[in-house]
Amino acid sequence: MAANPAPASSPVRLEGVTKSYGSTTVLHGVDLALDPGELVCLLGPSGCGKTTALRCIAGLERVSGGRILLGDEDVTGVPVSRRDIGMVFQQYSLFPHLSVARNVEFGLRMRRVDRAERTRRVGELLEIVGLDHLAERFPHELSGGQQQRVALARALVTRPRALLLDEPLSALDAKVRVRLREQIRAIQTELGISTVFVTHDQEEALAISDRVAVMEAGRIAQLGTPEELYRRPVSPFVADFVGLSNRVSGVLDTHPDGAVVRVQGAAIPVIGGKPGAGLGSALGAGSGASGSAVTAYVRPEHVRLAPGTPVRAQPGPTTSTGIGAAGIAATVVSSGFLGSIRRTVVELSDGTTLASQHGADVAFQPGDAVDVSFAAEPVAVAPLG
Amino acid sequence: MSAGIPGRPSPAAARAVVAVIGIVFLIPLVAMLEFTLRNTAGGHDLSHWAALFDPDKARGYRVLAQGVQNSLLLAVISLGIVLVLFFPTIVLVHLRFPRLQRALDLLTVLPIAVPAIVLVVGFAPIYRVIGQTFGSGVWTLALAYGVLVLPFAYRAIAADLTGMDARVRAEAARSLGAGWVTVLVRVIAPGVRRGLLAASLVTIAIVLGEFTVSSLLNRVTLQTALLQISKSDPFVAVAVSLISLVAAFVLLLLVSATGGPPRRRSPGGAAEVRVAPPTTPRAAAPAPSQKEPGRGR
């Protein structure tokens, strides 16, 4: 698991949190600490434990082990109603019998805030989410996006210690989703509230997070900035889950200058392959031996295509590292226009298919002969199997 | 007339079905009304209805008044059992112990599956103990009525509860600082308002119409009193039966009318929260369109 140095007074901190349902353990000692005002996404496939982790922070699930701290207070045994957190749910969770304004003021009523203050704060929050003109409407009179903004205002009006968002955009249409996530980020930044955002949408996570915790089978596989996750994935799982990756079979070649994976003569540097960089963490256990067969995870934008000769049995010459100099003969299978970019799928002579992402102004036709080379970006590798 | 929707009956056919069903229900009611209007001379007048409210004849109808009074008391107590005991229990099982749901489903069918006479035979020894402990007041009959109304009340409430996403709303309320009682009263109950009203109506209808248990346990209720009165004055018995049927129908109409989404209060209404005008031009989110696209419910 990725280490996460905890700041002195992290607004949200999980220390070795485990959660089991009977004999099934869904969280295995999760450690996580947010910086003040930070937005951290819990990203992962279905069943990885991200929602369970969020519910544990909220107090909606009782942890089986470990501690949860909000600021300096250990809230592990504190019920959800006394944790002072704001939460937005995946489903529209507004109270249908209350107007927008009364939904938003619900938390203030529970805290017995006086009426004048309630009115002021409800107005302030509705203004922030841009719905002050709909204060007297009922939830069924609002669109899905508007309902989630009301839910956000309701969660924030009590000025909670942390904001927890459980896939708040997943029930919305694509365009609304993008617009609302930008609004959520703007509001979160403006209010400076520490936020945990659960999503299975990697684009969403990369777009709005300060840091992303990629979860795999109840553990945090990697915690880092979106760029770190994308450019330096610590494991094949992260490389495969965050962004698109080609899985390319090759042979690991380690030498004092670093490690590369050789793919039909071309050489691609390996993440952590430099001396002392901890190659083992990027590889499966026991797979770091030179000469072992591995799978390399190559990003489509790092697969370069150039018009080639129709038939060539052997790849072109390579440098000592082979970076960017190799040309592997391949044939275009398909090419799709995606707006600003184009994605082209090619097939190597051994039947391996690779996706390449390149500018939309370069077009290939199915059957075109191309030369494939790889950019000098390090890749994650895993034992072939 | 516009073309009907494929697979659905035309409006005319729908109206015809409603009319036939209405007639089937109305015929016995009209027959009852006609019966109560008959006089001894072979004509029709309001003499039997007038007799109901005649102070001179009140003594003869004392048992009927007692029966009505007892039945209303039992209806109120049974309603209390449904709202104060059953409703929180059903919510508790739904939210906290969903695994018990199937067991509860099965349990609540039993009062329907077991014949009333068998129930009474089972109740008899229990009521001996109850009589020794609490006396033989008519209110104790509400405990048996609670069992009788359970299947109907349970289904009316549980169906609404399943359809309202109760778990998420309860969690949302809890995360906002609400305790369980607040969640139950201010979040769940308004969401299952129709179910609660339906359960209440069914409870009242069952209690007002129940005869077997009260008769076999020797309690005076509306139905046992009606039987007693009918032996001496069948006209009054039928008139009171008609009143109780119409009252049940009106209750049903009221329940139907209280459904639907909440409506905005009129401008003159006393809405409790008025949003204060913006004090600072610091809206983080851009002003939206009146209703942006999305999957609103």
Automatic annotation (TrEMBL), chain A:
GO molecular function, one term: ATP binding
Short name of one Pfam family: TOBE_2
Keyword ATP-binding included in the entry's annotation: yes
Keyword ATP-binding tagged: yes
Keyword list, A-Z: ATP-binding, Nucleotide-binding, Transport
Domain ABC transporter: 12-242
UniProt-recorded name of the protein: ABC transporter ATP-binding protein
From TrEMBL, chain B:
Predominant cellular place of this UniProt entry's protein: membrane
InterPro entries assigned to the protein according to its UniProt record, in alphabetical order: MetI-like, MetI-like_sf
Location(s), subcellular: Cell inner membrane
Keywords: Cell inner membrane, Cell membrane, Membrane, Transmembrane, Transmembrane helix, Transport
Alphabetical list of CDD domains matching this protein: TM_PBP2
SUPFAM superfamilies referenced in this protein's UniProt entry, alphabetically: MetI-like (SSF161098)
Residue ranges of domain ABC transmembrane type-1 in the record: 68-255
Protein name: ABC transporter permease
Lineage per the UniProt record: Bacteria, Bacillati, Actinomycetota, Actinomycetes, Micrococcales
Organism this protein belongs to: Leucobacter albus
Extent of Low complexity compositional bias: 260-288
